[in-house]
Amino acid sequence: MAAMASKLNALAIVLVAAATLVHLSTAQTRHVVGDATGWTIPSGGASTYDAWAANQTFTLGDTLVFNFTNGQHDVAKVKKADFDACNTGNVIFTITDGPASVNLNETGEQFYICTFGNHCSLGQKLAINVSRRAASSSPSPQPAAPPTSAAAPAIAPAPSGGSVTYTVGDKTGWVIPSSASSYQTWASGKSFKVGDVLVFNFSKNQHNVAEVTKAKYDSCDTTSPLAIYNDPPVRVTLNKSGEHYFICAVQGHCSAGQKLAINVTTVGGGGNNGATPPPPPSIATSPSSVAASPNSPPSTVNPSSPSPTGVASSPPPQNSDAASLGFAGLFATVLWIPAALLY
């Protein structure tokens, strides 16, 4: 009897693990906008993207992937009024490098357009509605040991793997600094890694955040940024390693020292700067985004953000639930284990 009880306990733990795998396989979905058509001027007009969106279910935490040719299109998140009027002068954030990934980090209606020429009026526009993922109605399983170790990251970031949120400038925020080297001094004592988040606190309509190339950073050139965020607080997720450059694109602010250059590594990092994170943004960070919260994105950015939620540098991913297929095989393997335990 003792041996049978031991096997049943092992079976219960395996089934809990299997349920967790099923949850993870459906936790997030990557939606490739327009599927094989990509993000372009559609031959069928605006109804093309409306029809595509009607067959999708967008939930908090999902990602939109826009596949387009650099220099011919872009992705801009806008408000409904600007979406309806195809107004490109008041965007929340813009991503210029494709393929572009936008994290859906807020619920409700979201609107995206291409700002090139008359592309929006020709139908290159997308409206979606993001819902909150339904909670499971079944009671939470209670295995003996795993919850203790799983709960630890909620108390403090893991020394080598947890992401860290950095408030740029700490209490000073993102402003014209008293010294041109202020933000580099702030960054010099920190080790940034992929997955960390930068939070820019500033007064709306007085400042913004633009991610730019090194050449534009050095010359304070505010034209054609990689991404730009206008609604504070802006949360930018550092979704790739290497050097990142940020400036305020309001005239004269960058040359006065409102600029930040950091280097992001794939490992290491850590140590919160002690600042209390601001309230959740209305958009994605970023790129990453964008977004950006993104307010982003990327956001909103962040967006929704981007990077925004950010700009993806890898080849265009497959659409929607492709990632779930890998979990199906793993799930079948897990279910085989309890059968072996019972015999």
Explain the overall architecture:
The protein has 343 residues and is of the alpha+beta class. Among the domains are: 101 residues, Sandwich (Immunoglobulin-like), CATH 2.60.40; 100 residues, Cupredoxins -  blue copper proteins (Immunoglobulin-like), CATH 2.60.40.420. Helix 1 runs antiparallel to helix 7. It is globular and about 55 Å long. The relative contact order is 0.16. About 26% of the residues have low confidence. InterPro entries: Cupredoxin, Phytocyanin-like, Phytocyanin_dom.
| Alpha plus pi helix count | 7
Low-confidence stretches: 22-26, 136-160, 268-318, 320-328
CATH class descriptor of the domain at 30-130: Mainly Beta
CATH fold title of the domain at 30-130? Immunoglobulin-like
* Spatial strand sequence of the major β-sheet: 2-8-7-4-5-13-12-15-16-10
- What is the CATH architecture descriptor of the domain at 30-130? Sandwich
Number of strands: 16
Question: What is the secondary structure topology, with strand pairs?
Answer:
Elements: H1 2-27, E1 30-32, H2 47-54, E2 58-59, E3 63-66, E4 75-78, H3 80-85, E5 93-95, E6 100-103, E7 108-113, E8 125-131, H4 146-155, E9 165-167, H5 182-188, E10 192-193, E11 197-200, E12 209-212, H6 214-219, E13 227-229, E14 234-237, E15 242-247, E16 259-265, H7 322-342
Parallel strand pairs: 1-3, 2-8, 9-11, 10-16
Antiparallel strand pairs: 3-6, 4-5, 4-7, 5-13, 7-8, 11-14, 12-13, 12-15, 15-16
Helix pairs in contact: 1-7
Function: May act as a carbohydrate transporter.
GO molecular function, one term: metal ion binding
Subcellular location: Endomembrane system
